[in-house]
Amino acid sequence: MVSGPGGVGKGTLVDRLVADDPSLWLSRSWTTRPRRPGEDEDAYCFVDRDAFMAKMRSHGFLEWASFLGNLYGTPIPAPPPGIDVVLEIELQGAAQVCRAEPGAVVIMVVAPSAEIQAQRLQARGDEERQIIRRLEVGAQEQADGMVLADHVVVNDDLNRAVAELADIVGWHRSGGSAPGIGQ
Ligand code: 5GP
What we know:
By secondary structure, the chain is α/β, with parallel strands linked by helices. It contains six helices and nine strands, in the order βαβββαβββαβααβα.
């Protein structure tokens, strides 16, 4: 799982990680959040609350959470055999998955600074009010994430951070034997 506050660049990192490694499979979440202007139609399965609740009632989610007034959920994954699943989710959901899947790994991504995080939120077109809320919630998420996470990656440089994520994946696949990675 890749988690962390909004505006730290998780989505871009995860897209790059998965594009570079055919044995990783990125789950597509469901959300009741409206699509942002310019946001990819495939970014989520965008649904209304009724559809989300119906899937929840039929036990169709591995985890789900309410975040800033919207619902987000991971459909029960069905990857091809031998493929590792990547989830880009917030911390309440990550904690649920950790309880259900003891072998799950949480990687927390953080921005190099609060200023850069705010700039990234502005650049993707979030409303000012939303940005302030996301930064407030994000500060708490970062603190909680430090407790839950197995690894913390600073997204200071895209290529470097993607390489670090790939090293972490490799480290866990090898049973934790590669040098230089860990906490
Ligand atoms: P955003 O609205 O910025 O796309 O996402 C808000 C937060 O929800 C982000 O932290 C994102 O990682 C998280 N998120 C996206 N999909 C899921 C999901 O399926 N489950 C949970 N618990 N969180 C998700």
